[in-house]
Amino acid sequence: xxxxxxxxxxxxxxxxxxxxxxxxxxxxxxxxxxxxxxxxxxxxxxxxxxxxxxxxxxxxxxxxxxxxxxxxxxxxxxxxxxxxxxxxxxxxxxxxxxxxxxxxxxxxxxxxxxxxxxxxxxxxxxxxxxxxxxxxxxxxxxxxxxxxxxxxxxxxxxxxxxxxxxxxxxxxxxxxxxxxxxxxxxxxxxxxxxxxxxxxxxxxxxxx
Length: 208
Description:
Blueprint: H1 12-24, E1 29-36, E2 39-45, E3 54-59, E4 62-67, E5 70-75, H2 80-85, H3 93-97, E6 108-110, H4 112-129, H5 134-150, H6 156-168, E7 181-183, H7 185-207
Antiparallel strand pairs: 1-2, 2-3, 3-4, 4-5, 6-7
Helix pairs in contact: 1-7, 4-5, 5-6
């Protein structure tokens, strides 16, 4: 019997970071700067450069990650290393983001990929449901593609302006409700750093 393929529900940004992260840390080395029970300070860094370095710092009830790719603080249980082990070294951005201490707005950011998926899907629906508007839809497609080709679609402000214009022309409606965000690249990178760093830490402990 053929084993059914497990669907990959990761977003485009999740896949991008998962592919890139191993290359960013392939030459990193681990240094335990401090360890006293739940008080830990562990550094991961390529010798001779601070590019992509990061520190994992824990104290009872919290874990902070800081380094070249920004930083975040998480709070949940006394031993946060144990918390992040619960997913078996797998990244779980949805659940982990709920444990961020303080502001959580930085975990999501505008995504051109989300915009492209949403606008082209919307225009496909209009073309299917209102065939008499085929010419308007085709014109809108060209304008969207021009924004992509010119690099304007990389910026949410430009995209929102384009959507407002398409609304005024009656091609698009209620676009202000569209959520054009995906997980922020740096947040995902730090999630991978926590999972990978903890795996290196545990492997070193086991080998000791």
